[in-house]
Specification:
By secondary structure, this protein is of the alpha+beta class. 12% of the residues lie in helices and 20% in strands. Strands 1-2 form a two-stranded antiparallel ribbon. β3 and β4 form a beta hairpin.
Length: 116
């Protein structure tokens, strides 16, 4: 999602998109996962259905890579995590990294203890 202004925490991204406050740009990117169980991959991660989800299938770290074909400014990143219904699988740490390619990524933000 991109936005010209600061998006308030907890704001509904779909409502913000309907009002023109943000624009969803994920479809312009190539998405890949470090691993996934069959039927729990990128399509389920991005399908706008809160009942479906990505489920990793391998050792940590579990990675979601989002690569744009050209330089793209991303001002807002929305992540839905439901600790109450999925506490043992809700991430305890999310690291956001940016760069020009996979080999020069720099961490710009860390979220710890999501939903707790």
């Amino acid at each position: 999602m991109t936005t010209p202004n600061k998006t308030p925490p907890g704001a509904d991204p779909k409502q913000l998109e309907r009002t023109g406050t943000v624009r969803e740009i994920g479809s312009q990117a190539v998405w890949s996962l470090s691993s996934c169980k069959p039927g729990f991959g990128v399509d389920q991660l991005r399908d706008d259905n809160l009942e479906t989800y990505w489920q990793s299938d391998g050792s940590q770290p579990h990675l979601v890579n989002i690569q744009f074909r050209r330089k793209t400014t991303v001002k807002t990143l929305c992540i839905y995590a439901d600790y109450k219904s999925d506490e043992s699988y809700t991430p305890s740490k999310i690291s956001v990294r940016v760069g020009n390619n996979f080999h020069n990524l720099q961490e710009i933000r860390v979220y710890i203890q999501m939903g707790i």
